[in-house]
């Protein structure tokens, strides 16, 4: 996150979580807050704060989903789309730097391993609970 902190955060007055949400909405299109929380790994309270700030700064708009009146859809505004397009090349520079000079076989292996890790982190039990969260709970008798 050092390139974000060094090059983008202050220049565009955007926090890390706001950046994550803006980039996710820009990439995936209209999304609900809970979908963004799952997609980015940011907890619901932090997503809520970032959504409020992005909306207040005119970067996203929050609309009621016409097919489900309880669902709120988040979309980039014109300003949000502009900012997404400005910051997207910087994220590509970071990604390119990380793999620059690696042999194709290593990149393929990294992709394979990351795919396995992501699948493991996203795995759910029969009740739809995260196996990762359930498996990493502290013991009930452990002090808080």
UniProtKB/TrEMBL annotation:
<dbReference type="InterPro" id="IPR036390">
    <property type="entry name" value="WH_DNA-bd_sf"/>
</dbReference>
<feature type="domain" description="HTH marR-type">
    <location>
        <begin position="1"/>
        <end position="119"/>
    </location>
</feature>
<dbReference type="InterPro" id="IPR036388">
    <property type="entry name" value="WH-like_DNA-bd_sf"/>
</dbReference>
<dbReference type="GO" id="GO:0003700">
    <property type="term" value="F:DNA-binding transcription factor activity"/>
</dbReference>
<keyword id="KW-0805">Transcription regulation</keyword>
<keyword id="KW-0804">Transcription</keyword>
<dbReference type="InterPro" id="IPR000835">
    <property type="entry name" value="HTH_MarR-typ"/>
</dbReference>
<dbReference type="GO" id="GO:0003677">
    <property type="term" value="F:DNA binding"/>
</dbReference>
<dbReference type="Pfam" id="PF01047">
    <property type="entry name" value="MarR"/>
</dbReference>
<keyword id="KW-0238">DNA-binding</keyword>
<protein>
    <submittedName>
        <fullName>MarR family transcriptional regulator</fullName>
    </submittedName>
</protein>
